[in-house]
Design goal:
Distance between the termini: 55 Å
Keywords: 4Fe-4S, Iron, Iron-sulfur, Metal-binding, Molybdenum, Nitrate assimilation, Oxidoreductase
Family: Belongs to the prokaryotic molybdopterin-containing oxidoreductase family. NasA/NapA/NarB subfamily.
Radius of gyration: 25 Å
Protein name: Nitrate reductase
Bound molecules: iron/sulfur cluster
CATH class of the largest domain: Alpha Beta
Largest sheet: 7 strands, mixed
Structural class: alpha/beta
Number of domains: 4
Cofactor: Mo-bis(molybdopterin guanine dinucleotide); [4Fe-4S] cluster
GO molecular function, one term: 4 iron, 4 sulfur cluster binding
Strand content: 15-25%
């Protein structure tokens, strides 16, 4: 290998929604190093601890221990999986899916995919489920991540479209961060904010968080609210602004609707009431309202603290109302900017890869949209019945309504709430297909069929980051072992499934052959899902966006090559993508006006009570990513926290007679886990914080029955269907 030339490949970091560009230097099959891409607008060369160690997580030595290298299969549930070849694995899977669809109908199968797949992967999965099989049972771990931000944007601004960009971090003179520890979750964007603060005298930073996170520690004003009381706080801030005449009435009158109902709804939301509910001083609420309204450019940044809640949509709606009322939107340095958790949660929404969506932001409940997609795909009809969302899918699997589930690039046995129920669902399923690059996720243990997929550094496609910027993902080294690209696995399966369904004579509007003459693009071959390259898929996806709010008909792989990453929309003829939305004050609603929607305060799903008196919050550590398939392979990523430890306020730690390294049992209404506790000044009294990165694979081996999410509740927001992973009532006892 040393004789081979050194090659540089530009791609993106696979971790968070900042979407940093990286340059990978390789020699032969070996990565020499990974550096920040100095030309990428998301990071201008900077990387955080996770991105800068990508090379160390992709060595032959590491991969030899954790990667899936060949298909595995078991025909009987009581057998162990055994190595097989691709044809056998896919033939078996196609036959089983066809049998279940023929016997029980298309909704007897489901796909649970991932915000870490590339847009092209997402597109073909969605087309397979909705276009070929005829089920909307396709959802994604983005449901756990951004769906409340989506429903908040759609409810108020008319489209799932963050209006801001990363340059706004440096242009705002007031930044309002709610429910986000950016310092850990979006480190490179956070550094940009730090630099902006240093350069701008008088800059104001307000942070809303129950904890004194590293982000909150930097704030000029930290509103240390009780968990789940954000709507009360935001409503009270708007109440204060109204009382003091700090509203931008010209913008309200010209560009919004629903303001009168908002005024009525907010009448009772005094700062005094909010102070008592939120547990923060009344004066601080007034100060926050003053700074927010009276700064010249206010930018909000928010993430899972708002989204992962049964009131997630309301929290987003109430925060966006602050921007609409003060005119802090559609301008440089101003606007409601939801930070995407995963690297491509937004790309998945663009292609409609969720149980409630269709491609290019089309809606299942809009007959015209359903007809457009059916025509585009050349199928007679698309089901307009919403499919099972993430939590619902595993409920239906447990109940036997869904018989087979296909999990790709995610780990529901670890990351879904009430994970023991998820484990039962996977055990009950007739067939579990897992498509993953790694053997280590807890979900792999339930697989009847394991399909090894390529991962970062090996695959091609595109992703979209938090600021709507589409970047190319490029392969720098060959596929590991026999693994295949995710899109290719789907296509290979789809062609077999189509044949099996035809053999079984499944009565299907999708399979009458009409699609063969009506492929929307000049694709090779004549099967429903047939692409000769990943670029073919991008081009087909691009056509679905024509005339839509996210129109990217001006984009191509060639344009991304020559002009670099671009923000959508970028319609045909535009020289570049759109940096900021709504600068003209026109919104993609029926009237062209943004909407005020009054959201009354509702408490969390599980209030603390005498039996479960502690409020449990779950979250991210600085150096780990999700279930740790990749970050868990590197010892230095454990220097911050070596194992899961529950953090309690020092006074509570003492009250429980705990000493350093004491063990505690943490019991919720669903499960009990046992782990070490530590005293931590950053945690509020009667609250507890637990990192999300350790799942059943850790606890099963060492300390008990299940992972962190055995404790959390599957109660979810009625609009976004996002579960309340940020709050569960628990009891904590010394053991
Ligand atoms: Fe990767 Fe996010 Fe870190 Fe950038 S900030 S290097 S995208 S993990």
């Amino acid at each position: 290998e040393l004789l081979q030339p050194i090659q540089s490949t530009k791609t993106t970091c696979p971790y968070c929604g900042v979407g940093c560009g990286v340059v990978v230097r390789t020699q032969g099959k070996k990565i020499i190093d990974v550096k920040g891409d100095e030309t990428h607008p998301a990071n201008w060369g900077k990387l955080c601890s996770k991105g800068s160690k990508l090379a160390e997580t992709a060595t032959e030595n590491v991969y030899g221990q954790v990667r899936a290298s060949q298909p595995l299969l078991r025909i009987q549930r009581d057998q162990a999986v055994a190595p097989t070849d691709w044809n056998t694995a896919l033939d078996f899977t196609a036959k089983e899916f066809a049998r279940l669809i023929a016997t029980y109908g298309p909704d007897s199968v489901g796909f649970y995919i991932s915000g870490q797949l590339l847009t092209e992967d997402y597109y073909v999965f969605n087309k397979l489920a909705k276009g070929l099989i005829g089920t909307n049972n396709i959802d994604t771990n983005s449901r756990l991540c951004m769906s409340s931000a989506v429903s908040g944007y759609k409810r108020t601004l008319g489209a799932d479209a963050p209006p801001c960009n990363y340059d706004d971090l440096a242009l705002a003179d007031c930044v309002f961060i709610a429910g986000s520890n950016m310092a850990y979750a979006h480190p490179v964007a956070y550094r940009r904010l730090e630099a902006a603060r240093a350069a701008m005298p008088g800059h104001k930073l307000i942070v809303v968080d129950p904890r004194v996170t590293d982000t909150a520690a930097m704030a000029d004003l930290h509103l240390k609210i009780q968990p789940g009381t954000d709507v009360m706080l935001f409503n009270a801030m708007l109440h204060v602004m109204m009382q003091n005449g700090w509203l931008d009435m010209a913008t309200i009158n010209k560009h919004t609707e629903g303001f009168e109902a908002m005024v009525k709804g907010l009448a009772d939301y005094t700062p005094r009431l909010a102070a008592s509910v939120c547990g923060v001083p009344e004066a601080d609420i007034v100060t926050a309202a003053t700074w927010f309204a009276q700064s010249s450019r206010t930018l909000s940044l928010y993430c899972q603290g708002l989204n992962q809640a049964t009131t997630g949509t309301d929290k987003n709606t109430a925060l966006i109302a602050l921007h609409l009322a003060t005119g802090h939107i559609g301008r440089e340095g101003a606007g409601p900017f939801s930070m995407t958790g995963q690297p491509n949660a937004m790309g998945g929404r663009e292609v409609g890869g969720l149980a409630t969506l269709l491609p290019a932001h089309r809606e299942l409940n809009n007959p015209a949209h359903v007809a457009e997609v059916a025509a585009f795909w050349g199928v007679k009809q698309i089901s307009s019945t919403p499919g099972a969302s993430a939590v619902e899918m595993f409920d239906q699997l447990e109940q036997g309504k869904i018989k087979a589930v296909w999990v790709a690039c995610t780990n529901p046995a670890h990351s879904l709430p009430n994970s023991q129920k998820v484990a039962r669902a996977l055990q009950n399923a007739e067939l579990v297909v897992v498509q993953d690059a790694y053997l280590t996720p807890a979900t792999v243990h339930y697989a009847d069929v394991l399909l090894p997929a390529t991962t970062w550094g090996e695959k091609e496609g595109t992703v979209t980051n938090s600021e709507r910027r589409i970047s190319r993902v490029r392969a720098a080294m060959p596929a590991y072992g026999e693994s295949k690209n995710d899109w290719q696995i789907v296509v290979d399966f789809a062609q077999r499934l189509e044949q099996e369904l035809l053999k079984l004579g499944v009565e299907s509007s999708r399979l009458d052959g009409s699609h063969r003459d009506s492929q929307p693009t000049a694709l090779a071959g004549n099967a429903f899902l047939h692409y000769s390259s990943v670029e073919d898929i991008f081009n087909e996806h691009r056509e679905t966006t024509r005339g839509r709010d996210l129109d990217i008909t001006g984009l191509s792989y060639a344009v991304l090559e020559t002009k670099g990453p671009q923000q959508w929309p970028m319609p045909e003829g535009e020289p570049q993508g759109k940096a900021r939305l709504y600068e003209d004050g026109v919104y993609p609603t029926a009237t062209g006006r943004a909407k005020f929607v009054f959201a009354p305060y509702e408490p969390v799903a599980e209030e603390a009570d005498a039996r479960f008196p502690w409020r449990l919050n779950t979250g991210r550590l600085r150096d780990q990513w999700h279930g740790g398939s990749r970050t868990g392979t590197l010892a230095e990523f454990f220097s911050h926290e070596a194992e899961p430890v529950i953090s309690l306020h020092p006074a509570d730690f003492k009250r429980l007679s705990l000493t350093p390294n004491s063990w505690v049992s943490v019991k919720s209404r669903r499960a009990t886990i046992t782990l070490r506790a530590k005293a931590d000044e950053s945690v509020a009294r009667n609250q507890a914080v637990l990192p999300m990165h350790w799942g059943p694979e850790f606890f099963g081996g060492k300390a008990g029955v299940a992972g962190v999410n055995a404790l959390t509740t599957e109660a979810f927001d009625p609009y976004s269907k996002q579960p309340e992973l940020k709050h569960a009532a628990v009891n904590i006892q010394r053991v």
